[in-house]
Amino acid sequence: MRKVSAVLLGLAVSLSVMVGSASAATSLDSEVSKLIGIDYDYGGTTKSGFDCSGFTSYVFNRFDIELPHSSKAQAQLGSKVSKDELRAGDLVFFETGGDGISHVGIYVGDGEFAHASSKKGVTISKMNDSYYVSKFVTARRILSNNAYKQLAVE
């Protein structure tokens, strides 16, 4: 029993660190950490399975912010943000299929973003990962300063 408890504690600590804080102290961190490991499902919008825009829509809907279920449509919202000005809660967009924006994730800080990967399900990846660095297209800020302070600041 102690071994199982130690493994679960280690997993909880690992997930907390993965979302950019030692204790998943922010509302955004907490919401994202609950979803890590959920399977990818094309068109999925629930905890049974997510695609990338279904994941971002689900997370923001938990905070009463509605997003369309399309990465291209989400890329039209809010204001454009440069890569070096990213803050937790910003949406980051990638061209992974050769036909414009085709993937979206939520920047969680420390150079990382949460997303629904077709190979790994809901996961955290590094913005400078060799796969994603060359596919980055844009980032959009959809949280107001007040919403940011409430959801993404410890």
Q: What would you say this structure looks like, in words?
A:
Helices cover 34% and strands 23% of the residues. The termini are far apart. The strands form two sheets. It has a six-stranded antiparallel beta sheet with strand order 3-8-4-5-6-7. The chain has a two-stranded antiparallel sheet with strand order 1-2. Residues 1-23 have low confidence and may be disordered. The chain contains six helices and eight strands; from the N terminus they run ααββααβββββαβα.
| Count, helices | 6
The helix-strand sequence is: HHEEHHEEEEEHEH
Q: State the name of the first-level CATH class.
A: Alpha Beta
Query: Could you give the count of β-strands?
Result: 8
Low-confidence stretches: 1-23
Question: In percent, how helical is the residue content?
Answer: 25-40%
User: Strand share of the residues?
Assistant: 15-25%
Organism: Paenibacillus gansuensis
InterPro entries: NLP_P60_dom, Papain-like_cys_pep_sf, Peptidase_C40
Keywords: Hydrolase, Protease, Signal, Thiol protease
Family: Belongs to the peptidase C40 family.
